[in-house]
Amino acid sequence: MINAILVFNNHGKPRLVRFYQHLAEEVQQQIIRDTFHLVLKRDDHICNFLECGSLFGGSDYKLIYRHYATLYFVFCVDSSESELGILDLIQVFVETLDKCFENVCELDLIFHMDKVHHILQEMVIGGMVLETNMNEIVAQVEAQGKLEKAEGGLSAAPSRAVSAVKNINLPEIPRNINIGDINIKVPNLSQFM
Amino acid sequence: MGFNESRRCSVWLKRMPAPIRLRELIRTIRTARTQAEEREMIQKECAAIRSSFREEDNTYRCRNVAKLLYMHMLGYPAHFGQLECLKLIASQKFTDKRIGYLGAMLLLDERQDVHLLMTNCIKNDLNHSTQYVQGLALCTLGCMGSSEMCRDLAGEVEKLLKTSNSYLRKKAALCAVHVIRKVPELMEMFLPATKNLLNEKNHGVLHTSVVLLTEMCERSPDMLAHFRKLVPQLVRILKNLIMSGYSPEHDVSGISDPFLQVRILRLLRILGRNDDDSSEAMNDILAQVATNTETSKNVGNAILYETVLTIMDIKSESGLRVLAINILGRFLLNNDKNIRYVALTSLLKTVQTDHNAVQRHRSTIVDCLKDLDVSIKRRAMELSFALVNGNNVRGMMKELLYFLDSCEPEFKADCASGIFLAAEKYAPSKRWHIDTIMRVLTTAGSYVRDDAVPNLIQLITNSVEMHAYTVQRLYKAILGDYSQQPLVQVASWCIGEYGDLLVSGQCEEEEPIQVTEDEVLDILESVLISNMSASVTRGYALTAIMKLSTRFTCTVNRIKKVVSIYGSSIDVELQQRAVEYNALFKKYDHMRPALLERMPVMEKVTTNGPAEIVQTNGETEPAVLETKPPPSGLQPANQANDLLDLLGGSDITPVIPTAPTNKPAAAGGELLDLLGDLNLTGIPSITAYNKNGLKIDFTFERSNTNPSVTVITIQASNSTELDMTDFVFQAAVPKTFQLQLLSPSSSVIPAFNSGTITQVIKVLNPQKQQLRMRIKLTYNHKGSAMQDLAEVNNFPPQSWQ
């Protein structure tokens, strides 16, 4: 089982934080800091495995990490996962990010933290590996992305709705828009007029 | 402007500006130059978000929660957003649900009651018409569903486990794993759904199904037995993956779905463990995977590694096991450090069961000691110790000693302990053993564990013929440098014990050095004075100096001076020792030789604890912590044996006469002290010994307070015409008893029965066994040393019943 997935940069700033067991916030931040220090000390010619029992209070846990340019990808796992397999999984994760963001770089992760979480959710559920086929993952992420776009997306909701409405005769706007199995309730926009 | 428009304006003014977007927030935070600046920005934004939440505006809730999650990642508190997440989950919009569920997973857990409010939403969403919404619900339930939620919703999950939608089926499988973990009793419920899970073509479903089956097998032996029948099917799937040729959808670096292969291999391992039939059914496929897998990339190695682990764990035939270990051996030579690391880890696990096979790779393993990688070095060290045996001990020790020399400090303590253990078990000769110990002490002397010192001392004592050689080498070792405490402690002890051998130049093993008594005392005094010496070490040195007073001839006065100086030391321990040694010089000089005699050969009791054969009951000299005063006699070992033989080989504990206390009680005084709790019921006294003019009588008293205690007062009288001087009385009792010997009234028995020596013995007899005693008497008479052993069997029943 995967205990935690952490992504942070060369200065220790977290870019993605996902714990699969419940820990208090201070503990989470402490673990991030400690992991960063442990991983920073490692040279490039050292193996990618670290014992880290003290961090999580169990002797079974290992840190498996990979360093890509300015980012560290760290998976904390217990003995039920294959170490070499997890190394491959990290590679698949990074390649998937690359496909979804088109030549992914750190800025993409910074500004689209929610999207990274959604991608991760198509790969790992509850600390267990769900899907390892990159194309499958990308397809599912894109489909859900389309859903969001149709609804107006995270931030665009009010303004897009306004501009759309400006071009149409008000009385003809339907209350509900149904496309396939997607239901959109049109918000009441009278205050904008 | 009319009334309507002014109303519009006021409506506008009432509303706050729209909450900023996530991108904007991130951009703003990144401009902060200090932690304090960042904190300020975040606090401002949190306040804005809080007010926005209060407005109950559906449109902005989504972006507000997204921002909150970002700030949470940076480490700022976000709990006030928990309820908002729930509201988002309840919304009809997919975007809202998505962020809402993510927020729930990141911010909520089953410890907050709030999470139960989600149950209904999840239930509805599990039946939603959009599969992605169903997927969100499954994901969330599978991550943080509490036991109550799992109980409520297990039925829905089970339904989805049977759906033909592979997207949902694979998620349902992992959700089921979580449910089983939370509520193990529900495992039975999922059993029917597992029937045709393995018939799926979709690899995602296959993968998660294997995970589910693995979980069920690990939890319940019944399930394990039930699923054993799946072995042929699993073998078939694995075969297809290997033989199927290039399949672009599942290909990773030329191998078809390595993740699935690894999962299946793991499940096969669990099914084949301890089961001959299953193990046999998978033999062929394991051999095939082991020989055919391409090893140039990491994915191939991951599969090979998993195969090796499976082969080692099930009841495979020996040919296959050898193949597996050879693969591990090849891994050790791989350039990739990760591969080397996992190889060493697995070899460590298998070295107990397949020792000989692993031995073949010993030289490669030893080479790994020189690796640059700390993790690999540690593994290699542990494995090397596991491989040491009688045949290879010389060679291995050489390598390990070299490693000890050059390794990082974090390894030295473990390495030193390991070397001591291995040397103890497999030392080819005593000389080699001592040399190895010396080498460890001099290279890593300060890292040696504290409990190693008494073990080493005991070891050295037992190598009687090597005493001269050992003390000479130790002396030379600390001459140059006395900062390594364990080394100095062992050296001081040995010099104290065998200093006479040192100055007499008796060494056979190597060229004896010329050293004078003064030089020896110089070094011990330097240790005493040095700031680097720990308190314990100083104690060792002082005792050593004291012991030399009986072994050295010319420097006794110097020793006396040193001892008296430390009588006023600030260190309480040293002070006490010095004061008591002083007393030994002054009032109890006649006892000094006996007390400071050569230590007997100590029998080993445990491997870890300090050896203890001589049980001292009652008052032993508190200062003499490390060296227990030996039973008397010039050949202590022989004497102990004689005492034992006389009592028919039953275990007895020789008892040491008490060391002189600072106020030796007068005989009368002692008796008076004891009168308080004595029961003077007139037990008849006996004559325990009567020979050569020396008569010893025993009188008995039973204690009122403790019925198991008998107090014996001995009176020794001398009917000859010359005094008996330096009289020492010793006694031994069977092991079930305990003896306490108090101080004698004096050590001279005047002639013609004109006076007696009195001494009190307290006997503890909890098992009320028949009292027996063996006594030993030494004294000087008519110019010669006399010694006698006797047994006392005529104790009256009232003295012990």
From TrEMBL, chain A:
Pfam families in UniProt: Clat_adaptor_s (PF01217)
Topology term for the membrane: Peripheral membrane protein
Record-linked SUPFAM superfamilies: SNARE-like
UniProt keyword annotation of Membrane present: yes
Keyword list, A-Z: Cytoplasmic vesicle, Golgi apparatus, Membrane, Protein transport, Transport
InterPro entries reported in the protein's UniProt record: AP_complex_ssu (IPR016635), AP_mu_sigma_su (IPR022775), APS3 (IPR027155), Clathrin_sm-chain_CS (IPR000804), Longin-like_dom_sf (IPR011012)
Gene3D superfamilies, per database record: 3.30.450.60
GO BP annotation list: Golgi to vacuole transport; intracellular protein transport
Domain AP complex mu/sigma subunit stretches: 1-147
Any Gene Ontology CC annotation: AP-3 adaptor complex
Compartment(s) of residence: Cytoplasmic vesicle membrane; Golgi apparatus
Biological role stated in the UniProt entry: Part of the AP-3 complex, an adaptor-related complex which is not clathrin-associated. The complex is associated with the Golgi region as well as more peripheral structures. It facilitates the budding of vesicles from the Golgi membrane and may be directly involved in trafficking to lysosomes. In concert with the BLOC-1 complex, AP-3 is required to target cargos into vesicles assembled at cell bodies for delivery into neurites and nerve terminals.
Family recorded in the similarity comment: Belongs to the adaptor complexes small subunit family.
Listed name of the protein: AP complex mu/sigma subunit domain-containing protein
TrEMBL record, chain B:
Gene Ontology cellular-component annotations: AP-1 adaptor complex; clathrin-coated pit; perinuclear region of cytoplasm
Domain of life: Eukaryota
Main location: cytoplasm
Keywords from the UniProt entry: Coated pit, Cytoplasm, Cytoplasmic vesicle, Golgi apparatus, Membrane, Protein transport, Transport
Signal peptide: none
Record Gene3D superfamilies: 2.60.40.1230, Leucine-rich Repeat Variant
Alphabetized InterPro entries for the sequence: Adaptor_Complx_Large_Subunit, AP1_complex_gsu, ARM-like, ARM-type_fold, Clathrin/coatomer_adapt-like_N, Clathrin_a/b/g-adaptin_app_Ig, Clathrin_app_Ig-like_sf, GAE_dom
Biological process annotations from GO: intracellular protein transport; vesicle-mediated transport
Domain GAE: 681-796
Subcellular location, record wording: Cytoplasm, Perinuclear region; Cytoplasmic vesicle, Clathrin-coated vesicle membrane; Golgi apparatus; Membrane, Coated pit
Family as reported in the entry's similarity comment: Belongs to the adaptor complexes large subunit family.
Its biological purpose: Subunit of clathrin-associated adaptor protein complex 1 that plays a role in protein sorting in the late-Golgi/trans-Golgi network (TGN) and/or endosomes. The AP complexes mediate both the recruitment of clathrin to membranes and the recognition of sorting signals within the cytosolic tails of transmembrane cargo molecules.
Name under which the protein is recorded: AP-1 complex subunit gamma
